[in-house]
Amino acid sequence: MESQNNKVKKFLFKVDILIEEETNGRALESLLHVLNSNKFEDYQIREGIELGRKIEQSLKETILQRQTKAPDSRATANKEAKPAVEPAKESASAGNSLPASDQHRQIWEEMKRFQTDNTLIRLYVIKAMGVKLSMPCRIINIDPPSGNLSVYHVDEKKVYLLKINEIDDYEIR
After folding, report:
1. 46-62 tens-digit pLDDT
2. Residue 63 CA neighbour count, 13 Å, CB half
C-alpha cells in the first residue's frame, strides 16, 4: 500500500526569473543552460526574448522609407507627364498607383496584430479560377512589400502562402 501513496506526480509552476547579464541574449543563454542541465521535464519561455528586435526595426525603417519615397516620385511623375489632366481624374489615377502596402495598410496592421497575439482567424480566400476556400488559420508571417501572407491551416496542419488580394474576408474565432 505504501508504494501507491509514494507515486510520483507532476506539478506545473509559473515563475518569473530575473537574470543579470550584459545582454538579453547572454541572459537567455544562462537560463537555457540552467533549465537544460536540471531535472525539468519540459519548460516554455513565454516572454522576455528580445532577439531579432534589430532585424524587425530595420525592416520597419526600410518599409517606411519606401512608402515615403514612392508616393512623392509618382506624384511628380504624374504632374510632369500629364499636366492637362482634369483634377478629378488625376486624383483617381494617383489613388490607383499607390503601392499595395498603402492600399491595404489597415489589413496589414490587423494581420500583424493577429500574428503578434497568435489569434485564430478564419480566412475566406478566392484562388485562381474562382475556387473559394475557408481556412481556419493563424498568421505566421506578413510581408507587405511583396503582398504575401503566410498562414498555418490549423485543420490540415499545413502552411499556405497567400497574396493579400486573394483574401475576400476574414473573421476572428
Report:
1. 666 666 666 667 777 77
2. 17
Grid look-up 515563475 returns 15
Architecture of domain 101-173: Roll (2.30)
Rounded to two decimals, the pTM is 0.42
Could you tell me the sign of the dihedral formed by the alpha carbons of 80, 84, 87, 93, in that order? Answer: negative
Between CA 114 and CA 121 the distance in angstroms is 8
Length of the chain in residues, anyone? 173
Rounded to the nearest 5 percent, the helix, strand and coil shares of the chain are 45, 20, 35
Write the pLDDT tens digit of every residue in 147-160.
Answer: 899 999 999 888 98
All three cell numbers of 149:
501572407
CA distance 56 to 34: 29
Amino acid at 69: K
Q: Evaluate whether 154 touches 141 at the Cβ level (below 8 Å).
A: no
